Amino acid sequence: MSWVRENCLSFFQMFCIKVVKTGRIPKHVAFIMDGNRRYAKKNSVDNSAGHYKGFDKLSETLRWCLDLGIPEVTVYAFSIENFKRSKEEVDGLMDLARDKFRRLMDEIDQINEWGVRIHIAGRLSLLPEDLQALVSKSMLATKHNNKLRLNIAYAYTGRDEISRAASHIVDGVKNNDLPPEDIDDELVSKILELREAELLVRTSGEVRLSDFMLWQVSNTVLYFTEVLWPEFSIWNLLAAIIHFQRYAPSPKQPEHLSDTKKRFLEKLESQRWQHIEKIVNCSLYA
Ligand code: FPP
Ligand code: MG
Description:
EC number: 2.5.1.-
Bound molecules: farnesyl diphosphate, magnesium ion
Strand order of the largest sheet: 3-4-2-1-5-6
Oligomer: single chain
Organism: Spodoptera litura (Asian cotton leafworm)
Keywords: Magnesium, Transferase
InterPro entries: UPP_synth-like (IPR001441), UPP_synth-like_CS (IPR018520), UPP_synth-like_sf (IPR036424)
Protein name: Alkyl transferase
CATH class of the domain at 22-158 and 194-256: Alpha Beta
């Protein structure tokens, strides 16, 4: 299945989306897509088929998020902890990612038409080289899209992301790009790869964060549902949004960044893009 599913909602479902849209819609929703293997077991298929179903559900969910006008979605697609799973399952998940990122490049015109920007967050160096090149290519190819930003946490944990931000700060101070007095929670938030989410949804009945977006969920509305990820429906998404509308705190006002912070962050951003371009240019697989 392609990355964003064609609209497949009934008239009644579209009507319900319109009603929910009369209330506040979260600007950033994060998903812990859990329960693929339990779904596989329940349906007597292998784990890999469960993960493929999980991807199909992601593509359907992206369609619904576009319809709802949600501008940013983050998904936990592969944790650093997931490397501890069996070799067969890890290889299967890497093959799934290869398959889908190749497909993304084949469908790039359609992705650009939808305005989907892909951002991969995580320790890319832990991935096979060909996959590093594929994900970097998709980030470059969708860099200018602005309708829906899709952050895919891959080879990611929240604590690893915070450790990497800390090492950027140390480098910044050492190189005199960052005055130590500029180090505060606002700066750390901006250095992290993922931004604060307004709503976090976890499927499959688990009620843990599993090292996902630890810094970014300090003020987030959490929604846990029993449904397994491949069975997640538009009704589950609308229930999560209604839960958000009931419990959301008032939106935060954007903070003013000092010029030194701005310069440091711009430099960091440009180094990140240079690194991504280097991966693509140096790869045998690009
Ligand atoms: C958790 O279910 C799911 C994963 C570890 C993988 C999620 C990946 C996808 C949905 C595909 C995304 C792919 C791309 C390319 C973005 P689980 O395996 O923990 O299932 P369980 O909780 O039932 O054991
Ligand atoms: Mg699980």
